[in-house]
Structure formats: C-alpha cells, structure tokens
Inverse folding.
C-alpha cells in the first residue's frame, strides 16, 4: 500500500469516528498515534514504541484532520 493511500485510509478512519470513540493511526511495532474524539475535537497522543506512557501531542478540530495525519506520519 502506498503512503498516499495509507494517509487517505487514516483520514477516513478519523472522519468516521463518533464522539467518545478512539482509534490508532500509523501503528508500527507497538507504537504510533492514538486519537480520541471528544465532541467535535480530536485529541492526539503519541504511544511510545518501547512502552511508557502516552504523550499528549495536541488537539485538532474537524478541519485540521489532514494536519493531524501528517503529524503522525512524520514520526515514521
């Protein structure tokens, strides 16, 4: 799967989240991004690859989902 289609798939996954749901984005070997939808905002946490506590990265609005996905994919 190309990087472009992976990003598109992640973006669609976020758009389909209902309030109070969460999902992983760009998961790799037990690490990646975890997103929680709280009402109409999306809260991003980085999950460390080798364990440890999730790290808060930022809060994004519905019109910033592409930026959220770009942030997560920049970690790989």
């Amino acid at each position: 799967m190309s990087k472009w289609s992976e990003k598109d798939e992640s973006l669609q996954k976020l758009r389909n989240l209902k309030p109070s749901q969460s999902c992983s984005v760009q998961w790799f070997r037990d690490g990646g991004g975890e997103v929680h939808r709280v009402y109409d905002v999306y809260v991003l946490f980085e999950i460390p690859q080798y364990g440890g506590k999730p790290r808060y990265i930022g809060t994004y609005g519905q019109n910033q989902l592409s930026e959220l996905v770009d942030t997560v994919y920049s970690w790989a």
